[in-house]
Amino acid sequence: MEFKDYYATLGVKKDASQDEIQKAYRKLARKYHPDVNKDPASEARFKEIGEANEVLKDPEKRKRYDMYGSARNSARQTGAPPPGWEGVRFDFGGPGGSAGFDFDEESGGFSSFFDMLFGGGAGRGGRGAGFGGFGGFGGPGGPGAMGREGSDSEASLPLTLEEAAHGGTREISLVDPETGERKNLSVKIPAGVRSGQRIRLAGQGARGRGGAAGNLLLKVELLPHPRFKVEGNDLQTTVNVAPWEAALGGEASLATLNGEVTIKIPAGSSSGRRIRLRGKGLKPSGGEPGDLIAEIRVAVPPELTPRERELFEELRKESSFKARP
How many whole angstroms separate alpha carbon 114 and alpha carbon 51? Predict the structure, then answer.
């Protein structure tokens, strides 16, 4: 069974941190995803990248993989497997050796090498990999092939501000990256969910082999809103007032997430003054709602009637107010 260098597949060093591994995986996955890259070879490359990440992102799997690689190098140098690895077949390629192996679609897209290390049976050469007393691995003389649980998958879930605030049910359609199949799911959106939070759909992730499927994690992304800006649990908006309303005070209608309300404009309000409506912001699950903060903007008529111009000219003559020093 030919050795697969997962570090080389992701283009990282053997001592790479978990963060470096994930950055490399995300970059390559975006580049070779079959939905983006139409090269016929991209699908196989995408699966290789996914397999490498499946091992290296998991500290326990990475440890087992590194131990196998160390034992393989020892066998290459000495011609004999190290103690405890006598039943393992190390294939270094070359004449008479394995030239590689294909992805086994029935195993969820992972290669025979992966199966040999993490619970599969015999490889393509027809020989099992007995790991002696190294628990958790299959093969002759071992505890038998173990089922492999599916890994968790993640996808983005764009929501409007109203959907996130009020909750509800959303129907979504996703494409399985392994099979290309499209599946429709009904997602329950909890009221008060925030951007960056994840909604977990049990059993809707990657399929396992003899084990349970992983989970699907939907990462919430709030879509830009034409009226409100989100700041924590608070909402920010603007309210336009006429010059005479700003000077004399008055009332104005203001939209909130739960309908319109009437607010008072204090006399002498300049642009930039803020009016705070307590409890009219976003309500987190189990927490207190934030506030709605409306910023006043003084708006002037784009065109003046003759009478309006006359009155403004009169005001300019009569007023002693200086807007600038």
Answer: 8
158 forms beta bridges with 221
Amino acid symbol at 273: R
Output DSSP code: residue 289. Answer: -
d(CA 219, CA 223): 13
Between strands 292-298 and 234-241, the pairing is parallel
CA distance 293 to 236: 5
- Orientation angle between helical segments 42-56 and 18-32, nearest 10 degrees: 160
pTM of structure: 0.51
Model confidence pLDDT, tens digit, residues 183-216: 888 999 998 888 889 999 888 877 776 667 788 8
Alpha-carbon distance of 271 to 247, in angstroms, equals 11
Write down the residue that tokens 């908006």 correspond to: 237
Measured CA to CA, the distance from residue 122 to residue 197 in angstroms comes to 42
Spatial distance between the Cα atoms of 153 and 217, rounded to a whole number of angstroms: 6
